[in-house]
Amino acid sequence: MKLSTKGRYAVMAMADLAGNSTSHPVTLSEIALRQGLPVQYLEQLFLKLRRQGLIKSTRGQAGGYVLAQHAKNIKISTIMAAVDEPIQVTRCTPNSEYGCQGRPEQCVTHNLWEGLALHILAYLNQISLEDLSNQPVRKCGKLKPMRGKSL
């Protein structure tokens, strides 16, 4: 499975927003600076996130973005879906009459990879933006799975 920058950046930006928009709207330039992300790319992602009702925007000098709902109600899988980041680990095109090898049948490992995709989706459905925001930031090399969220 390859996770594109679209999904990773959207989750990073939403986690930043959840942690920093408690008292005032947050600008994209603030998020970009803190997370090391390109503002232009965030603009595209936030348009999609706003259309899906995950964030609200405020115009003007004190404008920016806030979450449209409480962080505990926003699942990571919802953020991924909002920016069109599919959880797909097979090479097959969904709803195609041909498998990944260009034949009418699926490859011998199709069910294995399809099952993995379901586990990944289930895992991302268990984790809320609040869960992610409450995790301490660790130094590289000391990464551990989120507590209480294993499959």
In short:
The protein has 151 residues and is mostly helical. It is built from six helices and two strands.
Please supply descriptive tags for the structure shown above.
151 residues; mainly alpha; 6 helices; elongated; 44% helix; Arc Repressor Mutant, subunit A; two-stranded antiparallel sheet
Topology:
Layout: H1 5-20, H2 28-35, H3 39-51, E1 55-58, E2 64-67, H4 76-82, H5 110-126, H6 129-133
Antiparallel strand pairs: 1-2
Helix pairs in contact: 1-2, 1-3, 1-4
Write a structural description.
By secondary structure, the chain is mainly alpha-helical. It has a domain at about 5-85 and about 125-135: Arc Repressor Mutant, subunit A, CATH 1.10.10. About 45% of the residues lie in helices and about 5% in strands. The protein has six helices and two strands. The chain has helices at about 5-20, 30-35, 40-50, 75-80, 110-125, 130-135, and strands at about 55-60, 65. The longest helix has 17 residues, at about 110-125. It is elongated, with a radius of gyration of 18 Å. The two termini are about 20 Å apart.
| Count of helix runs | 6
Distance between the termini: 18 Å
Per DSSP E runs of 2 or more residues, the count of β-strands stands at 2
CATH structural class of the domain at 5-87 and 127-133: Mainly Alpha
The proportion of strand residues reads 5-15%
CATH topology of the domain at 5-87 and 127-133: Arc Repressor Mutant, subunit A
Instruction: Report the CATH superfamily of the domain at 5-87 and 127-133.
Output: Winged helix-like DNA-binding domain superfamily/Winged helix DNA-binding domain
Spatial extent as radius of gyration: 18 Å
So what's the overall shape?
elongated
- Reading side by side through the largest sheet, how are the strands ordered? 1-2
Q: Unreliable stretches, pLDDT < 50, 5 or more residues? A: none
Helix content: 40-55%
| Main pleated sheet | 2 strands, antiparallel
Structural class: mainly alpha
| CATH architecture group name of the domain at 5-87 and 127-133 | Orthogonal Bundle
Q: Mean pLDDT score, rounded?
A: 84
Succession of helices and strands: HHHEEHHH
